[in-house]
Amino acid sequence: MGVMSCSRTACDNIMCDTYVDGVGYVCNDCQNEFKEYLSKEGINATTEGEIRRALEKFMETRKDDYTLGNEMNVNEFFKSYTRD
Fold first, then answer.
1. What's the maximum distance between 2 C-alpha atoms anywhere in the chain?
2. What is the pLDDT of residues 1-29, one digit of tens each?
3. In degrees, to the nearest 5, what angle opens at C-alpha 41 toward C-alphas 36 and 17?
4. CA distance 70 to 83
5. Helix crossing, 28-41 with 48-59: angle to 10°?
């Protein structure tokens, strides 16, 4: 049995149980983040084709792009990178 590494960019999870043809392996962490991605992007995928297309696009993003860090607005973001 080989290692089933998650196919998502910058994800190092191995031993994934979910394999989507044409997409690859998707770990549980990335499945949960995909749900966040759909919500935050306002994507209401209701068919297999819509879900697949959204998943293909999502898998090209880096791990934790949609769950990393605290919630903030744009002003707070720039303030955190501005010297006083």
1. 55
2. 467 999 998 999 999 999 999 999 999 99
3. 40
4. 20
5. 110
Which pLDDT belongs to residue 70?
Answer: 65
The CA distance from 38 to 11, in Å, is: 19
Contact 29, 17 (CB under 8 A): no
Tell me the chain's radius of gyration from C-alpha atoms: 15
**What does the pLDDT look like over 63-73, one tens digit per residue?**
887 776 667 67
Q: What's the first-to-final CA gap in the chain, in angstroms? A: 55
pTM over 0.85: no
